[in-house]
Specification:
The complex is a heterodimer of chains A (92) and B (133). Chain A has 92 residues and is an alpha/beta fold. In chain A, 29% of the residues lie in helices and 25% in strands. Chain A has one domain: Rossmann fold (3-Layer(aba) Sandwich). Chain A has a four-stranded parallel beta sheet with strand order 2-1-3-4, covered by helices on one side. The longest helix of chain A is centred in the N-terminal third of the chain and has 16 residues. Chain B is globular, with a radius of gyration of 14 Å. The chains are: A alpha/beta (92), B alpha/beta (133).
Chain lengths: 92, 133
Amino acid sequence: MKKIIMAVCGSGLGSSFMVEMNVTEILKELGVTDQYEGCHTSLADVTGMDADIFVTGLDLADSASHLPNLIVLNSLLDKDELREKIKEKINL
Amino acid sequence: MFIEIIDKVDNYEEAIKMSCDILEKNGVVESRYYDAIKAKIKEFGSYFCIADGICMPHARPEDGALKEGLCILKLNNSVDFDGKLIKVFFTLSAKDSESHIGLLRKIAEVCMNKDKLNIIKNSKSKKEIMEVL
């Protein structure tokens, strides 16, 4: 079964969806789509069991602090930052 | 897609209200959509500020979104939103969780491209914004 990298935001359909698009592109670049996949949801719906790695923006870091393996992005749409932080989490 | 350029607003609420009014007038959202956005801001803060000078206010489909739509409101003078200076409001409406993906891709593409972002931030006409999108 693939591991899940889940983007989380306040409503689960705007910024988290955009971050998921970047996660998916980065996983392709890194050549690990056979092991990982991206998805997105809202803070209201998310639980720590839903994914292996979570991603959110700095503004929501406190609200999401209960999630394990959390990546916090200083700049939400910065692909370089996201790539480095994903690589660190998946030990590439 | 609706585009409006105005000189300035007194506060960010005014910009979001203005955008929601445009969407409502065009049958994209119900009036309660604005209240839902305000409630989200109260709960989570300014999390939908997605890039420097850019924010993307939105609520959920069940909050009175009638169809997919986007209102771009560009200010000539930026306004404070929780300590961030905002010049462009991409107020988004999504009727379900997937169908607005095309709009999101467009917004993301612009936000991740400094040149395009600068053109929009400094644009003086709706046509300029249309061309970038």
